[in-house]
Amino acid sequence: MSSNRAYDVLVWGATSFTGERLVEYLALHAPPGTRVAIGGRNQSKLAEIKERLTAKHPDAVHDIGAMDVLVGDSANLARLHEIVAQTKVVASTVGPYTLYGSELVRACVAEGTDYCDITGEFPWVKQMHRELSEQAVRNNVHIASMCGFDCIPADLGCFMLAQYANSEIGQPLLHAKGSIVGIKGGVSGGTLATLVNQIGVEKRSLWKRLFAKKRTNRHSGGSSSSNTEAARTSYRRGIIHYDDTLQRWQTFWIMSMINTQTACWAGRVLNYGPGFSYTESMTARNLLHAILIALGLLYGVLLMMFSVTRKLLYALRIVPRPGEGPSEEFTRQGFFSLHLEGFTAKEKVYGKVSGTSDPGYGETITYLGESALCLAFDRDQTFRPGVYPPSVTMGSALLRRLRAKGCQFEVGLLPVSATVNKTFSLELKKAE
């Protein structure tokens, strides 16, 4: 990548709910002298963002005012290539990425520009990997998708466990289990639109995976004197099960659909251990609560899948429309805590990943902002070119950055204290 580019980071989709918050984050937290540009389709809306942020943060007037505005559209490929060729890194918040993200990634790979996003659309990321990863390697381009709450905690959490198991006890990591033990967060209309699109793309393969999991659980009995095999049988759990370490019932966690696939992919690429696997669930107060959570999530997803019921939910203001999201006050009140338990052939390691703001917006903005800055300023020989999850692309460098920003990533040989008294709270909040 050329070192004489005009910008360090371009925020693409800056007029979106998440995009504007990313612009604000970079204005307040990027190192002095960082050259940031904002981009999208609408010149006037991009200018309005600068005006709003300038009024909100008078101490950052210089940094915000220095942000150039780049107008373009994925329908105009020549202009898109011209834009991405001016920056070292593109941070994209334009979803659903299956619909609006492919041409931008293709342009970045062709122009030698690094890229990060916050998609949770795993099939799309794998499509980009199949289509573009070899070319990205040839061009030494780093395409890091899933750099938000989808899937940094699970992805970097497993990376952290695998590193610790290898360095401290000299054993490969065979399996990791994640448990959401506390969460409070809001959902934006854009995230819901992406989820609906994702379910439409994945619904057939999702049913196949659910039924395959049930068959696996049904035939998982028996024990073995082999430590490895004994551990492997303990990995197989039902959607609702009791966790002996946390001493709590566990239930279905909707983001496990993307987090498990991402962590397992990274584990194969980085060779955490033979046949590495990852499972993820959510803590409930008791068995009845676990059943009610699973049924509630399933019911909510079904309502959003069909256009008639989805339009009714929008009309009644029960869920936010695209462009809406949780208020800043609600974002500050959010939190999450992910407890991790890792298995080697003979021992266990434990970890905790947590955040002190809304996971989908407060923590996600930190994750994406630091991912973009990591690609812009920290690249070295450990970075892996190609189309991959963030742990594969940036690994230890990103982990160091996030820890320096106060994001909690703890690991050890004893269970890390887990906050299990805070109950699950996922709320749909619209922008004020």
TrEMBL record:
One of its GO terms (biological process) is glycolipid biosynthetic process. Residues 9-141 form the Saccharopine dehydrogenase NADP binding domain. It comes from the Eukaryota. GO terms for cellular component: lipid droplet; mitochondrion; plasma membrane. Keywords: Membrane, Transmembrane, Transmembrane helix. The chain crosses the membrane at residues 287-308. SUPFAM superfamilies: NAD(P)-binding Rossmann-fold domains (SSF51735). Belongs to the saccharopine dehydrogenase family. This is Saccharopine dehydrogenase NADP binding domain-containing protein.
